[in-house]
Design brief:
single chain, 183 residues, alpha+beta, Helix Hairpins, Immunoglobulin-like, 2 domains, two-stranded antiparallel ribbon
């Protein structure tokens, strides 16, 4: 699915940025290897040149900084918690998830995966559930994630969130959808 949150849009842009850097480095290395295999030329004055040693020390450091700074910015963006509009608690069980809207009294339900024989044409196997979680659009939503029994992973890729549900631990994530849809 396409990105539906600002965090996921930033992650996609960072992926493209890092992929372009990797492509340029790989092309340069392939070009140098092909030159070394096809030519017999050797320049003796470059064997002990300190300028070249400085270049191949400083250039990789600059490239690492070009990758690290956007990565750190996105990392801090994912951990930024504003005042949430709504709090959703997701509790993982062996074969299903329980959801509780903490801001409202007695608003909780279980969400089970739909069996294959109940699926309608166009629905996805192992992705459709009997009770979907409904969240408002363009609002900061805090999701508290935990587990009842074993390790689980609560993920919504198009919103850029993936958090582990660990028994006895309460993890927190922020979700914000910028367009309506089924995620």
């Amino acid at each position: 699915q396409n990105a539906a949150s600002p965090i996921m849009e930033e992650l996609i842009a960072f992926h493209d940025h890092a992929l372009m850097i990797i492509f340029l480095i790989s092309s340069l290395v392939l070009y140098i290897i092909s030159l070394m295999l096809t030519t017999k030329l050797m320049h003796t004055s470059t064997m002990n040149a300190q300028e070249i040693e400085m270049i191949w020390t400083i250039l990789p450091a600059m490239i690492l900084i070009m990758i690290a700074l956007p990565s750190l910015r996105i990392l801090y963006m994912t951990d930024e918690f504003n005042k949430p509009y709504l709090t959703l608690k997701a509790i993982g069980h062996q074969w299903y998830w329980s959801y509780e809207y903490s801001d409202y009294e007695d608003l909780a339900f279980d969400s089970y995966i739909m069996p294959t024989y109940f699926l309608e044409p166009g629905e996805f196997r192992l992705l459709e559930v009997d009770n979907r979680t409904t969240l408002p659009m363009e609002a900061d939503i805090r999701v508290l994630i935990s587990s009842q029994d074993v390790l689980h992973s609560w993920a919504v890729p198009s919103l850029g969130v993936k958090t582990d549900a660990i028994p006895g631990r309460l993890n927190q994530a922020m979700v914000a959808s910028m367009r309506p849809g089924l995620y």
